[in-house]
Amino acid sequence: MSAVFIHGLGAVSPAGWGVDALLAAAEKEQPLPVQTLARPGWAKTLTVRSVPPPASRLEFLAHPRLRRAATLSQHTIAAALEAVGADIAPVQAGALRLGVIVCTMAGSVAYSRRFYEEVLREPATASPLLFPETVFNAPASHLAAYLNSPAINATLVGDGGAFLQGLAMAAGWLAEGRADACVVVGAEELDWIIADAVRLFRKSAVYTGGAGALYLKMHPPARTVLSAVTDAFSFTKSQTRTTAARQVRGQLGRGRADELLCDSEADPSAWPDWPGRRLAPKTIVGESFAAAAAWQCVIASGLVQAGRFPGASVRVVGANQQAIGARFMNAEQPAT
In this structure, what DSSP letter does residue 287 have? Predict the structure, then answer.
């Protein structure tokens, strides 16, 4: 993979709206407050972390396509617009070809649940307005429509590792000249169905929703470079999650004493010989599949950009498919 430069970051998370709020939470290393979420049919509630309301109305919601957009699409677009920043106007004017990649695992569950609840209750009156928001590629479509962008556009469905595959795909598009810039978004939605499903597999997990985004170009100026994405190592009967995670570690290397490891695994034994600082964002923000992987990358590249570390490695051990890693470096001293 050719090195690509990080020109912008975006985030919507339980820490708040914006990258600054997420980085501040990561620096404190204190778990964010939890909330309760009702589960129909149960007296007991689910423990989750929810995204707080924005400080003011989101201007992009005035767009005709977005008046009824699901929360997943709202978070996707907010993170993407923050990342793209000053290049929004050139994209809308057609002067910059923006590739869009949105990564998700669960997709728009809330509107899907609402639609099927209506179908089961009374099929004749089920609202067709809900159905378009149930498809996986709705957020990417809405984002392209808002930006008036006809450029290449894709949605990747997979566990958290899909976000890093999205970064590698974006690097390929840029190298091949299929886009002038790319925004890669990882997004998930908070709903009781997903929160309850996560609880069945890992009772200690606190589910949340939100989105994270990286804006990539092939050229500087930029403070951070995505220098590498590892191979994706699948989980199989003969290769466990632990084995796959070790293979990622082997490709990323041991690291340096002044570097950051932003790991999806909170257990230090998962990477016992890492010599630098270790951070497990899921223990702070929560479990959110593709969004959580995006937050790992936003935190890693953001702290490198801020001069806190000369480099940072990210390792994502997904929920059910793959382990994969990436490396971010100071743009003036990219790793080979």
Answer: B
Once rounded to an integer, what is the mean pLDDT over residues 46-73? 94
The CATH code of the domain that includes 152 is: 3.40.47.10
Can you point out the beta strands (E) in 152-245?
153-157, 181-188, 207-208, 210-217, 224-229, 233-234
Number of independent structural domains in the chain: 2
Same structural domain for residues 147 and 47? yes
Q: What angle do CA 173, 10, 85 make, to 5 degrees?
A: 75
In the numeric block, which tokens belong to residue 27?
A: 């620096």
Average pLDDT of the residues of the chain: 94
44 Cβ contact list (under 8 Å, min separation 6): none
Q: What is the pLDDT of residue 330?
A: 93
Domain containing 192 equals: 4-217
Whether the pTM exceeds 0.85: the reply is yes
**What is the per-residue pLDDT across 126-159, written as a single tens digit (0 to 9) for each?**
888 788 888 999 999 999 999 999 999 999 999 9
DSSP string, 110-122: HHHHHHHHHHHH-
Residues in the chain: 336
Report pLDDT digits (tens) over 296-318.
999 999 999 999 999 999 999 99
What is the tally of helices (H) and strands (E) in the chain?
Answer: 9, 15
Burial class of residue 38 (count of CB atoms within 10 Å of its CB; 0-12, 13-18, 19+): exposed
Angle, CA 145 vertex, CA 139 and CA 151 arms, to 5°: 95
Of 293, 248, 289, residue with least CA distance to 271: 248
